[in-house]
């Protein structure tokens, strides 16, 4: 029989545990509170990158970040691009683990994006390419591409994952539903790459990007955060994986197929006139990461997850054996462009985003590539980061000299790729 004092202690303990449990619940319908952090060794490059844009691109009067920023930090235009701003929102939201003021800036940028970089028609909401702050004028293109529409959701979803709210989730659902209506192919599955506001889906616009971008830019992350509504996303995630697995990997060449017919038949580079068809190694790495992300996707069967894991690892092994590296290992990075048919390097520059995609893919392979990750991340952070002016370079040349004429901020470049890579690397780093 429990004595009165003992019973009282149980009651108090129960109340404390209840209060703790309530305090740990997220608002809205998301049960996700991000538990991962940023590994100590990545904090400095993350802060350096964000500080560059806070110092040079951020306008405290409007709370927005201008997009086109040169090597030294000068603003090159009064334009704010949808993709660049959305990717900034992503980076600020995740990096708020280091500085809580980042989440406030992300929220303010989100409000600007939703008010100035969106429009609506009879189908629903869509993103506008850019807004000119000085002219107070938005872009007016009638052709929507899947890159800008998918990555328009990128920052909103990561902000929701870190700072859940019902109103933000409602906006995300509206854009997601419109995205499906515009781009989803109800006949052959998957997504078209372009949508014309007057005539609809653009025939012949299917590509590797229209398979990958909806998943990697926002839908996989939204599935992770919006736990109650996961059935909204799972059929599309599952179908895109199936199409990609069947049609997007060229076994004979060891490279991804980049373009497809409407029925997902890949364009075959086999004629003399197509000898110069090229591919970027970064797309091989990005494609591998698509499959390696599926390890925790419980809506897939165990056999499916194993199949995708095996394919992702196979793609990495083949890509790491390609003649794209300056040395015998990854310590000097890899080149930007290769001929599909003979593996000849066609561009010896080294591109920031491709190295980020490689780091993500390698980090997802359950510890198989520890040495390769160590070599590549040391190269990446030592060479792409600008220790003098801040931020990071777009290109290095063959000898690893930064190409300073390329903008550090542009239509799609801000802070996203590096911070996304840091996120995945940190999840597999011992703190």
UniProtKB/TrEMBL annotation:
Report the superkingdom from the record: Bacteria
Descriptive protein name: N-acylglucosamine 2-epimerase
Which PROSITE patterns does the UniProt entry name for this protein? PROKAR_LIPOPROTEIN (PS51257)
Q: Which GO MF terms does the UniProt record name? A: isomerase activity
What keywords is this UniProt entry annotated with? Isomerase
Organism in which the protein naturally occurs: Marinilabilia rubra
Tell me its family: Belongs to the N-acylglucosamine 2-epimerase family.
Q: Extract one GO BP annotation from the record.
A: carbohydrate metabolic process
């Amino acid at each position: 029989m429990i004595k009165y004092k003992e019973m009282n202690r149980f009651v108090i303990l129960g109340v404390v545990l209840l209060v703790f449990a309530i305090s740990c619940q997220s608002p809205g319908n998301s049960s996700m509170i991000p538990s991962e952090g940023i590994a100590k060794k990545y904090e400095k490059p993350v802060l350096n990158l964000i500080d560059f844009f806070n110092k040079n691109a951020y306008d405290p009067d409007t709370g927005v970040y201008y997009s086109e920023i040169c090597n030294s930090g000068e603003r090159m235009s009064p334009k704010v691009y949808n993709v660049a701003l959305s990717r900034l929102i992503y980076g600020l939201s995740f990096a708020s683990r280091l500085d809580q003021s980042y989440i406030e800036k992300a929220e303010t940028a989100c409000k600007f994006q939703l008010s100035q970089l969106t429009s609506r028609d009879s189908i629903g909401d869509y993103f506008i390419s850019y807004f000119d702050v000085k002219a107070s004028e938005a872009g007016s293109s009638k052709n929507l591409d899947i890159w800008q529409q998918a990555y328009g959701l990128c920052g909103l979803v990561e902000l929701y994952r870190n700072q859940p709210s019902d109103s933000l989730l409602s906006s995300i659902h509206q854009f997601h539903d419109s995205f499906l209506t515009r781009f989803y192919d109800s006949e052959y599955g998957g997504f078209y790459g372009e949508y014309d506001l007057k005539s609809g889906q653009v025939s012949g616009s299917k590509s590797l990007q229209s398979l990958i971008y909806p998943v990697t830019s926002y839908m996989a992350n939204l599935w992770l955060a919006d736990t109650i509504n996961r059935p909204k996303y799972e059929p599309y995630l599952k179908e895109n994986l199936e199409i990609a697995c069947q049609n997007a990997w060229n076994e004979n060449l060891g490279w991804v197929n980049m373009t497809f017919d409407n029925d997902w038949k890949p364009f075959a580079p086999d004629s003399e006139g197509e000898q110069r068809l090229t591919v970027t190694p970064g797309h091989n790495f990005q494609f591998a990461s698509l499959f390696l992300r599926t390890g925790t996707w419980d809506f897939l069967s165990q056999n499916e997850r194993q199949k995708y894991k095996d394919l992702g690892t196979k793609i990495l092994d083949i890509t790491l054996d390609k003649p794209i590296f300056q040395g015998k290992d990854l310590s000097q990075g890899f080149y930007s462009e290769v001929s599909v048919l003979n593996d000849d390097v066609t561009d010896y520059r080294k591109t920031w985003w491709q190295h980020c995609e490689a780091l993500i893919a390698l980090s997802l392979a359950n510890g198989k590539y520890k040495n390769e990750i160590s070599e590549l991340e040391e190269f990446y952070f030592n060479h792409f980061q600008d220790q003098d002016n801040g931020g990071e370079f777009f290109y290095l040349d063959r000898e690893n000299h930064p190409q300073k004429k390329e903008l550090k901020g542009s239509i799609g470049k801000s802070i996203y790729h590096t911070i996304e890579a840091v996120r995945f690397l940190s999840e597999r780093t011992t703190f």
